[in-house]
Design a protein that fits this description.
318 residues; seven-stranded antiparallel sheet; 2 domains; 6 helices; nine-stranded antiparallel sheet; mainly beta; 10% helix; Jelly Rolls; 23 strands
Length: 318
C-alpha cells in the first residue's frame, strides 16, 4: 500500500483562467482552464493514477476492482454502485452562472437515476472584497420562485456574501449559488455533474449563442429561506479540524507546521488536496514530495503516515 497520486481531467469552460497552470503547474491542454477534476470517476472526466502498479489506469477502473475495493476505498464503499465523491480545483476568472443542483430524489426521478449534488467550497485565493452568491433572500417565498428565477434581474433576489481566503462554504442541494470572478476554490462534492443554470450574466458560449438555461427544473428544486453557512479557518491551530460533516462526506483541514502524524481508516479512503505550501508524506521507509495543487488518496489499509513541511491540506472521507 502507498498513497495513490492522481492526474486530473481538465475543463475549458468560458469563465476560466490560467491559475491552474501558473500557480499549480497543471499540465492542461487548454489556453483557458476553468476546472481540474482532481479526484474523479465521473463519466464526464476521470482522474488517472500517476504512480504505483496501477499507473495509467483511471480511478474508476481501480474502484471497479472488487478484490481491492475495501482495502483501498474502505468498507463503507463495498456496496456502492459508484465512487461517492468528486473533488475539483476551480479557477473562476469571471462569474459562474447562477445555478442550483437537485437532491438525490429529484435526480433519480428526472435524470435517469443520477445522484444529486451537495458540495463544499474552500476559498484558496480571492481578491479583497470578493463575494459569492449563496441562497435566496428571506423575503422570497416558494410560490415566488417562478417570477424570481425567470426575472432578468434575478441577482437582486439573491444573497451576496463576502468571503476571504480560508473560508469554507457549505452548499446543500437546492441552494441557488454562484462563484464570482477572481476566486480560486477547492470544491468537494457528491459524484454528480448535474447543474440547472438560472442566469448567465448575458454572455454567450463559444458558439456565439446564449448558453442553455434550465429554469423550470431550478424552480422545482430550489430552496428558499436557507442562510449561508460559512466557517473562517485561518485562525485554526496546527493539526486537524473538521470543516464539514454531512451525510454525503466529511472534510477536515490539516495544518502542518513541522510534522503531523496520522493513520488510515478501514471504513473509508482519505481524499487529500494540498491547498497551501509544500512538504512531504512519509510512509514507512518511503517519502513522496507534495506541492500546492497535488491530489492523492490515502488507501483505507495504508496504515500510519506522516505529513512534514509547511502546508495545508483538505482531507475528505465518508
Amino acid at each position: 500500500m502507498e498513497p495513490i497520486f492522481l492526474e486530473p481531467a481538465f475543463k475549458d469552460y468560458i469563465w476560466g483562467g490560467n491559475k491552474l497552470k501558473t500557480l499549480f503547474g497543471k499540465n492542461s491542454p487548454y489556453d483557458i482552464t476553468a476546472e481540474s477534476w482532481e479526484i474523479s470517476t465521473n463519466k464526464n472526466g476521470q482522474s488517472v493514477i500517476a504512480n504505483g502498479e496501477n499507473k495509467g489506469k483511471t480511478l474508476g477502473e481501480l474502484f471497479e476492482n472488487h478484490e481491492l475495493r475495501e482495502a483501498i476505498f474502505g468498507t463503507k464503499t463495498s456496496e456502492l454502485d459508484k465512487f461517492p465523491l468528486l473533488v475539483k480545483f476551480i479557477d473562476a476568472n469571471s462569474n459562474l452562472s447562477v445555478q442550483v443542483h437537485p437532491d438525490d430524489k429529484y435526480a433519480y426521478e428526472h435524470e435517469n437515476g443520477e445522484k444529486g449534488k451537495t458540495e463544499m467550497w474552500y476559498i484558496m485565493e480571492c481578491k479583497e472584497g470578493a463575494q459569492i452568491i449563496c441562497g435566496i433572500k428571506e423575503s422570497v417565498r416558494k410560490e415566488d420562485l417562478p417570477q424570481v428565477l425567470n426575472s432578468p434581474n434575478v441577482a437582486e433576489y439573491l444573497n451576496f456574501v463576502q468571503v476571504n481566503q480560508g473560508d469554507c462554504i457549505y452548499i446543500p442541494s437546492g441552494t441557488v449559488h454562484a462563484i464570482m470572478g477572481d476566486t480560486l476554490i477547492c470544491e468537494v462534492q457528491q459524484n454528480s455533474d448535474l447543474t440547472y443554470r438560472v442566469y448567465d450574466w448575458g454572455r454567450v458560449g463559444k458558439d456565439g449563442k446564449p448558453r442553455e438555461l434550465h429554469v423550470q427544473k431550478a424552480i422545482d428544486v430550489a430552496n428558499v429561506g436557507s442562510k449561508p453557512e460559512i466557517k473562517e479557518t485561518n485562525n485554526w491551530q496546527e493539526g486537524e479540524h473538521n470543516m464539514i460533516s454531512s451525510q454525503y462526506f466529511k472534510t477536515d483541514k490539516i495544518t502542518v507546521c513541522v510534522e503531523f502524524n496520522d493513520c488510515s481508516n478501514k471504513d473509508s479512503f482519505y481524499a487529500m488536496n494540498v491547498v497551501k505550501g509544500e512538504g512531504k508524506i512519509k510512509v514507512q521507509d518511503k517519502e513522496y514530495n507534495l506541492k500546492l495543487g497535488d491530489s492523492f488518496i490515502i488507501p483505507a489499509k495504508l496504515g500510519e503516515y506522516t505529513l512534514c513541511g509547511n502546508m495545508e491540506l483538505l482531507k475528505s472521507y465518508l
